[in-house]
Task: inverse folding
């Protein structure tokens, strides 16, 4: 266990559905991240939050909407997704947002968009 | 921005052999280079990292080397075991508020 949990572990949704991914960290960290992991591609950073404030949005389509109500919880709200959005979505946390701080990853949510 | 290339994409070795995974980076300002291991059904986990002020770092059977002049760094695993089978990712960052840039990953398969 890394101290970062994600639910659900698997999600299948249609293109018209609305769903949310949840991430919780029990490490007392201040920074949280959403990554997208697709086959044969590097991990793609989507969003970064530091002390509940979004500090980075890597040109992510608006059909992905993050929410960080506190430093321990991070959500990714999904609506009107496309089949190419099918991927493993990983949440991570670190003490601060500095690139040299070790990031601790959750197990991911495997998302399939039909 | 930073660009990280990783080779090979897959690597098969026999148990007990050594394995080497290589990465190159483009941003000469990068100064922190972690390696992550991702086992099936799990998220990536940090296994070793190196900073630009050293050329080599070891931790039991794993070691990382860094050549700043050539802008490449490598992961070395000696005496491989079946439980080393996983996907390994290298990453680089200039530090500060810059985030990590990851390579595409190497699937290591260790056969008994």
Result:
């Amino acid at each position: 266990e890394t101290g970062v949990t994600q639910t659900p572990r698997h999600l299948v949704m249609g293109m018209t559905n609305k769903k949310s991914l949840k991430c919780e960290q029990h490490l007392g960290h201040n920074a949280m991240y959403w990554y997208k992991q697709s086959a044969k591609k590097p991990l793609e950073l989507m969003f970064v939050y530091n002390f509940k404030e979004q500090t980075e949005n890597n040109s992510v389509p608006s059909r992905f909407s993050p929410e960080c109500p506190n430093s321990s919880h991070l959500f990714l709200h999904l609506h009107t997704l496309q089949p190419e959005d099918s991927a493993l979505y990983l949440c991570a946390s670190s003490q601060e947002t500095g690139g040299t701080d070790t990031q601790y990853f959750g197990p991911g949510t495997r998302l399939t968009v039909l | 921005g930073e660009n990280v290339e990783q080779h090979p994409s897959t690597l098969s070795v026999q148990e007990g052999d050594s394995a080497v995974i290589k990465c190159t980076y483009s941003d000469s300002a990068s100064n922190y280079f972690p390696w992550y291991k991702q086992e099936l059904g799990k998220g990536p986990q940090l296994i070793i990292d190196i900073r630009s002020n050293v050329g080599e770092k070891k931790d039991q059977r794993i070691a990382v080397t860094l050549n700043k002049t050539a802008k490449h760094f490598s992961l070395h695993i000696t005496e491989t075991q079946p439980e080393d089978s996983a996907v390994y990712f290298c990453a680089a960052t200039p530090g500060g508020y810059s985030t990590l840039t990851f390579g595409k990953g190497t699937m290591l398969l260790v056969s008994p």
